[in-house]
Amino acid sequence: MELSLEEVTKLTGGRVVAGESKNGYRGLAALNEATANDVSFLGNEKYYDDYLRTNAGLVLVPSKVKEFPEGPVYVEVENPSYAFGLVVKKLSAKMRSFKPGVHPTAYVAEDVRYNPEKVSIKANVVVESGAVIGDGTEIQAGAVIGEYAKIGKDCLIYSNATIREYCELGDRVIMQPGSVIGSDGYGYEFVDGAHQKVDQVGIVVLENDVEVGANTTIDRARFGKTVIGEGTKIDNLVQIGHNVVIGKHCLVIALTGVAGSSSLGNYVTVAAQVGIAGHLHIADKATLMARTGVMKDLEGDQIYWGNPARPAKDQLRSIAALARLPKLMSDFRSLKKKVEETESE
């Protein structure tokens, strides 16, 4: 299983700028670990020294590179990181074989709607009554599909993921290991001296091309739907609360928490460890830097940082001013002393 130089250039839209191809390419590796059978890429100037010493067979490079040490074949592309991702996807598809059928240890209820010749259900999977599974979908070992859940075409449900009852997945959805869709929202009312559970009777909808990271949880709505929009990618260890609506093509990074009934527009980027309080709206194309705390609605097309969230440029000015405070205090004490000495003469 390998790619030829011609396949790589066609796939990436690149052109050969130096070197000669001696073989096909079967592997993928970082510049400092690659061998003659591997494809690598230069996507950050910090790795330029590794680039100069690499043993890779083929390196994807940006147009600004002018040095081409002897050894690899160099393919110029517009965006090396993205181009490398295309090669990864192609090689991974070649290495991963889709074998339709149902493993003998899997439990599939009699009324599940699916074509066993066009889906792959691995060992110890449980698919409960009324579920629907689209063609081309693979469900890996130990996953659980609840009653009347709907899974679209060409989805990939990794091991030990859970899709609870009535939840819906579009086409080409990826759920990484241990992710949970449709767990109960965190809802309680304090009555008669105790926290009384509020029933959560809604569902979760993941639209086409959504990816959910490992051990991420997305709560079912109290009523209605929790929705993750088309093309949105959610990292590992993220918590999405009940009735949250996330727009299309958003990025939500690890250890972020979004409280119930908040909404994100389209193309919103949420960096690591961000906390978003409940019942808020973040508009299109906003970017929240790491560890930002959101406590009010935010306008779009801006970068925010800090706790509470502020435009990043304002936050940076505040930090710079704070760094100058010790010197300002020292100057103030010196001036105060001089004034006191002048007044005492």
Description:
It catalyses: a UDP-3-O-[(3R)-3-hydroxyacyl]-alpha-D-glucosamine + a (3R)-hydroxyacyl-[ACP] = a UDP-2-N,3-O-bis[(3R)-3-hydroxyacyl]-alpha-D-glucosamine + holo-[ACP] + H(+). This protein is of the alpha/beta class and 345 residues long. It has 2 domains: 5-95, 3-Layer(aba) Sandwich (Udp-n-acetylmuramoylalanyl-d-glutamate--2,6- Diaminopimelate Ligase, Chain: A, domain 1); 101-311, 3 Solenoid (UDP N-Acetylglucosamine Acyltransferase, domain 1). The protein is flat and about 100 Å long.
Number of helices: 4
Mean pLDDT: 96
The span between the termini is 92 Å
The order of strands across the largest sheet is 6-8-11-14-17-22-25-28-31-34-36-37
Tally of extended strands? 37
Question: What is the helix content?
Answer: 10-25%
Q: So, CATH architecture of the largest domain? A: 3 Solenoid
